[in-house]
Design brief:
Layout (H helix, E strand, L loop, with lengths): L4 H48 L7 H5 L7 H10 L6 H12 L14 H36 L4 H14 L3 H15 L19 H38 L3 H8 L4 H30 L2 H6 L5 H10 L3 H29 L6
Helix pairs in contact: 1-13, 5-6, 5-8, 5-10, 5-13, 6-8, 7-8, 8-10, 9-10, 10-13, 12-13
Length: 348
Amino acid sequence: MTADATPALVEDRQTAAGPRVRRGSAYPRYLAGKVAGALVSLLAVLVTSFFLFRLIPGDPVKTMTGGRQVSEEQLAAYRAEFGLDLPLWRQFTDYCGKALTGDLGTSYQFRAPVVDKITEALPNTLLLTVTAFVLYTALGILLGTRSAWRRGGTGDRVNTGLALTLYSIPSFWLGLLLIIVLSVGIGPIPGMFPTGGMESGGEEGFAHVLDVAHHLVLPVVTLVAVEYGQTLLVTRSALLDEMGSDYLTTARAKGLRDDLVRRRHAVPNALLPTVTLIFINLGRTVAGVILVETVFSWPGLGGLFYQALSVPDLPLVQGLFFVFAAAVIVMNTLADLVYPLLDPRVAR
C-alpha cells in the first residue's frame, strides 16, 4: 500500500464511522418523537371517546330502568348520581381529570368501576386473541415463504387465492357459518362444538381446561381464517423482492443448498415488513375481536362492549373504546421502535 493511499483510507474509515455515530445519536430523537406522537394520539382518543358516544340516541338513565314506571324525581336522582345533570363541559373536564389518574368512571348498568370490569374481561379476550394471533402469524409466514419460493406453482396459486378469499370474508359471517355447520350440524355433518360461551360449567382441573379449549376452537378458527391471509401476502411479496438480490446468487454460488439459502439468508431479510405487520396485527386483533366475541358469546371485552353499547353505558363504552384504540396505538409505536433495530436506516 502506498503512502498516498493511506490518508484516503483513513478518511474512508472516518466517513464509515460517521454514520454509525449519527445513527446512535439519531435513535433517541427518533424514539422520543414516536413516543410523543403516541401520547398525542392517546389524548386525541380520550377526547374523541367522550364526544363520539354522546351522539348515540337514547337516554341511558331511562334504559337502566328497564321500561318501569319511574318518576321524574327518581330519574333526576339517577342523573345526579352519575353526573349527567352537569353541563357538558363540566362532564368533559371531570372525565379527563379522572382518566389521567386511571379512573374511567363507574358503569351505569353494573354499578362497578369501569377499570374493574375491563380487568375482569381482559384475560378472556387475551386468551382468544393471543391464541389466534400466534396461529395465523405462524401459518401466514410459513405459507407465504413457501408460496414465494415456489412462485407460479399450483401451491402458490392455491395459497394465494384462498388467502385473498378468506381475507375478504367478514368475520361475523364466517363465524355464523361455522356455528351452523359445526355447532348445530347440517346434513351428514354432526354438531361437534358448542354454539357459544367460554365453558359449560361444572368442570374442574384438567377437564375444565379441555372444556375451555373446546369452546375456543371455533372463535380461533374464525380469526385465523380471516387474518392469516394478510401475513401470507406481505411475507410472499417481501420474499419475492429479495429473491433477485445478488447476495442470494453469491450464497448459491458457494454451494449452499436451496433450503439453507432460503432459511438463513432470504427469509430473515424479507421478514422486516412482516415484523411491522405482526405488531400492528396484534393491536388490531384485540380491537377487532368485537364481532367474533359477540357471535360466539365469548365473555371478553368485545361482548362487554356490545352490552355497554346497547344501553348505552357511556363510561363503559368510553373506557373500552379507549382500550381498543390504545392497543392499536401502542402496538404501532412498538413496531416503529423495533424497526430501526432491524434496519438502522429508518432512524436516520
